[in-house]
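Protein modeling request. Please complete all fields; requests missing the sequence field cannot be processed.
Requester role: graduate student
Desired output: 3D structure, C-alpha cell encoding
Chains: 1
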Amino acid sequence: MTSPLTVVTGGGGFIGRHLVPQLVDRGERVRIVEKPGANVLHPPGAEVVFADIRDRDAVAPAMKDARFVYHLAANPNLWTRRRGEFTRVNFHGTLHVLDAALAAGAERVLHCSTESILTRADQSSAINEHQNVTIRDAIGPYCRSKYRAERYAMQLAQQGKPVIVVNPTLPVGPGDAGLSPPTRMILDCALGKRSAYLDADLNLIDVRDVAAGMTLAMAKGVPGRRYLLGAENWSVKRVFDFVADRVGVPRPTWEVPYGLALAAAYVGEFVADVVTGRPPAATVTGVKLAGRSMMFDATASLRELGLTPRPVEDALRECLADLRISGELPR
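Delivered output (331 residues):
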C-alpha cells in the first residue's frame, strides 16, 4: 500500500533540511517543492519539484495528491533590494500554496509563520501564543508580509479549513547552508566582526526541535490556533560572549546606543540599495525589533504538543562545529 504523500515547500532550507529527514524516517513519502535553481540536499526517498510559489499556475501541479502540506517557503531575510519581493513571496506565495493544497484535497496544512510579527512597542511581559497584534505592530516589509500571510491562514481555519499555524522563534543549530540571519550573526561574532552589541533579547530554539514541533503540530494541532515554538531567552550579549569564548576571539565590550544603531542601519540600507546591492551589516527592521521586548514564553504550546527542546548551548556548539566543517569558520 502506498503511503500518503507529504509536501514540504522550502524543504531545501534550514528548517526543511531537518524536517524532511524526520518525515522520511517515519515512512512518509515526501515531495520537496523548491524555487527553480535551488541546491536541494535531500535524503533518499524524497522527490524534488521545482516551482516558483509566486506563480499560482506553477504551484497547483506541485500539490497534486498531497495529503499533508508543510508550507515553509519564504524569504527569511530582513532586507532585500526589491522590497516588493517580500509581498510576492511571503504573502502571495502563501496564498498560492494554501489555496492549491486545499484544492488538491489536503487533509492537513501547516503554515510556518514567525515570532517577529508578535512583538509590540508596549510589550512589558514575555510573549505567548495568545498575543494580539495588528498590522500596525508589524515592523518593516518583511514582518508585514508575514503578518498578512498568517492572517490569511487563520481566516481559512476560521472558515473550517484544516490549517494549523506555528511560529518558531530563532532556529539555531547545524545545517544552515544558506546562512539565515541568526546563523550569520553567530558566524560574524565567531569571525571577530562583532566588537559591539545592542542591549536586546532573543529567544532561541534548536532547529531540530522546530522540525519536531512542526510534525507534532501537524498531528495534534487545532486549526485556527497558533503554536509558539521557542525555547530559551538569551540576551544578544550572552550569545556573543558564548560564541566568542568557544572560538577564542575577544568578547564584544561596547554597548551601542539604540539611536546610533538605528542611524547606522538606515545608512547601511541606503548604501546597499543604491550602491552595493549586498545585504547591509544591520537592517532597519532588525534594529527596530531589537528595540522591542523579544522575550517569549512557549510553555503552553510545548506542553500541548509534547515537545521538550534540547539545551540551546548544545545547538550553538553544533552550529559552530558545522560552520567549521563547511569552511565558513576556520578550524
